[in-house]
Amino acid sequence: MAPGIIEGALPDSLSSASGKPTVYLLDTFHPQVLAYVKENFDAITTDDPRHSRWRQEARYLLVRSSRLTAQDIISCPNLVAIGKQGVGLDKIDVDACASRGIKIFNTPGVNARAVAELVLTLATASARQVGSIIAKQSSGILVPKEKCSGLILHEKTIGILGMGNIGKCVAKIFRGAFDANVIAYDPFLPADAWEEIPHKRATSVEEVLRSSDVITVHMPLTPETRNLIDYDQMKKMRKTAIIINTARGGIVNEDDLKQALSEGLIWGAGLDCHTEEPPSYEKYQGLWESGRVVSTPHIGAATAETQMQTGMAAARYLMIDELERKEQALSQRLRELEASSAPHDPVSYASFIAHLFSDANWRKSHASLLRTLADAPGVGEVSIAPCALPSAAETQMLFEKYLSWAHIQNPFLLRRSIWALHQRLFNNQDASAPVANHDLFRAFMLCAIGSVLPYRNRIHDRHPGAYYNAALQYLGTEFGIYHPIGTSVWDVVRVCGRLCIELGLHNNPNVQGDLLQTQLRRRIFWQFYLIDRYSSTTLDRPFLIDDNDISTKFPVETSDEELEAANNQVQCLDSFGINHEPNVQNEMTVFFVSVRLRQVSSHIQTEFSKLRRKVTDSPSKRLLPGHIHVAMTKLLQELQDWRNNCPIIQEPSCLYETQEWYDLLLARERQSVLRRAIDLVPKLNGSPPKGILTVFLRSSLETIDRYHSLWCMKRTMMTHTRSYFHMLFTAGLSVMYCTSVSKTIAADDLRASYQGLLRCRELLNSVTKQLPDANNYVSVYEALFRDVSQRLWPKESETSLPSDASLVAPATSAVPSYPHDLGNFANGLPQHILTDSLPSDMDNMSNFATNRNFFDESVLDPVSQFRAPMQTDNDINLEGINWALMSYDSLWNMESALGQYVYGDPTNTGGWEGFEF
């Protein structure tokens, strides 16, 4: 259905004072759903005095069981969309909505498991006459077991009318529970549906009814399906047949069912849906007292999990619709601006985004970018079929690749357990013994990770996703991610963290008499710590556990084999004597490097959170620059200390053992510190002090260059990831920001920035070859780069460099020099980022703010900043230099949205709402 078109301005009542869209809730909802709605909407609940005016004022409605008639729809002049918790639409006048262009968002598929389990419940209860036995016992009647007689469902035939999500789930459950034969009918699904489920495809309803012991209905109530199963149909069924209806009341004719039961035409029925809901004793007394009917009041989706999931899905669909409408309104407004503005009129825009979008030529070239910015940053899905395990030799090769790559940085499995798994899979003496699902899941996951580099280096022909999708088949029902609702990596990490805490892994666990298991528990906890710190820092969210609450010590720095050998001689892991030679790798070497860096980044996050509160709460702003400088200098020194203590491995076997890798990590974390300092430092007319802006620019360019050098030198050792993409994208935005807000900048420095941005663009395009779902972000970057290039480098031509210049390895093997000491941090980068000469202190980055005038507001005087003459060879006028790339908040809101793409909820669209269009 097409979205409704609202002409003119919307009434004031349709949006709240907070600017959030208003939604009226016609029913009660799960507490988590209510919390989400209140966070993202102006939510008007049934107990709100304003609720009585929902017909007159509702723009959005959220409903669960309420009925919306055609008259209700007519009475809602402003209604544009309805979020419906659950699948069925029989209580909503769909035709009336269609005639108005009102969208209806229901939630098919989310409740499939809950309803399918109820089918199993009703079928077994009816087969064993549980309902009548309970009713008699509850009324005081003794029920001797000799008078009870039921049916066995094992290897019986289940007939399924409707082969949607619920029907499919029912088929799998009955196949697993009873080895049931499945016959199914659905006139709308293709012939090859349910290929993975053994079943017979019926050609008519009658074929299902004649052949089945249990008939379960899963189809909507329509004029064609009303009274689908009546007395004549029941006469065709087996005497021991059981009818289950969890779809809609009215599909099974209830009067005919009562007659059929009284005549013994069928065994019984399980009804979760009735023509009257909730069902009353007055209407259903005859059916209930027959002793052959188990009746429930439409509870198929009435589980806490399902109520939360379906309600959340309906609410999020409304949020997505609101964002799409904002995008449409924005496009319309920009068209109006274009039509009303003369080409020669000077127009001043508040932000880069507004200026960018008002450019008609730019929009014609990038028609889809508006949509890109408004859409949720989603993760593209590629359909890759699951595969079987490869041969024993090939599996061994992939396990070895895993151990020599991913395991080096993330040793949360024991080597011996991996090879024991291989033994169970391929060398088991009892070939008839089934392989445990847990073993198959772990084996496929190891193959998926181990095949990444071989596949991308074209020495292995099977896509890692094929192994991953195969692994998911063995994950079981204990854990699931519901993609329509969205679960972020950050959320999953927190689930893992809660498990670690519940198991006491944060509290220095000890397995008596087993050093290796104690070591493993420590490794698992610190592995969680590493991921928690990185994802929380990326998303600027709180850590799951504070450093002060962790008493678990580091694993000992030794190999698994040494621990096993010492198990009988040493009682406690901490008393294990280590004679470790420096720079000799063992099981923990690289892991310690990563964890210690995360400890520093945790400190960075904590310190800047304190500074942010100080900035907010401080009555005097004059002391803030000093506080920021002290904290920044201390944190940069901590990072340098970490780098100085990194091991030197003479013959690195993987990326994580190379010095270039450690240099890149240092550059990334430095950029993070400076990025946060830029956030808090006082600004004049949106521009930070030029000294810190200089260092920020140099840090961003260094990050790009470090990654480029690493990619050129170690291409076969590394694979692009979303984390790398986030780092590059942020560095590129930072360079754009620095060059656009710097009021005085030399031509040579602009040239260096241009080359850095060009190199960053080529690297980002290289990333998309391995991560196609990053294309939208590259489109955004290219549009921003193209626009800033036209304004700041009007005479530059990309043809002056090779088209792939940024990915060409240096002519010599030497990497551009970036000494590790803080005092020479800027070496190898443009030396005169400002037209005026830098303060002498700027030669030492760790003390760049010790100059008394560094944070003095007079340094930022807009007049004095333009006294130095511009470089004539750059041909950039004053207006071009003074032009700001974009508002500060808009720039970093874009970075925040990218963070959601990397570690956050891919359906979370909040990051894009901060743009000042």
From TrEMBL:
Keywords: NAD, Nucleus, Oxidoreductase. CDD domains: fungal_TF_MHR (cd12148). GO terms for biological process: DNA-templated transcription. Residues 489-561 form the Xylanolytic transcriptional activator regulatory domain. GO terms for cellular component: cytosol. Pfam families: 2-Hacid_dh (PF00389), 2-Hacid_dh_C (PF02826), Fungal_trans (PF04082). It comes from the Eukaryota. GO terms for molecular function: DNA binding; glyoxylate reductase (NADPH) activity; hydroxypyruvate reductase [NAD(P)H] activity; NAD binding; zinc ion binding. The keyword Lyase does not apply. The keyword Phosphoprotein does not apply. InterPro entries: D-isomer_2-hydroxyacid_DH (IPR050223), D-isomer_2_OHA_DH_cat_dom (IPR006139), D-isomer_DH_CS (IPR029753), D-isomer_DH_CS1 (IPR029752), D-isomer_DH_NAD-bd (IPR006140), NAD(P)-bd_dom_sf (IPR036291), XnlR_reg_dom (IPR007219). Belongs to the D-isomer specific 2-hydroxyacid dehydrogenase family. This is Xylanolytic transcriptional activator regulatory domain-containing protein. It comes from Gibberella zeae (Wheat head blight fungus).
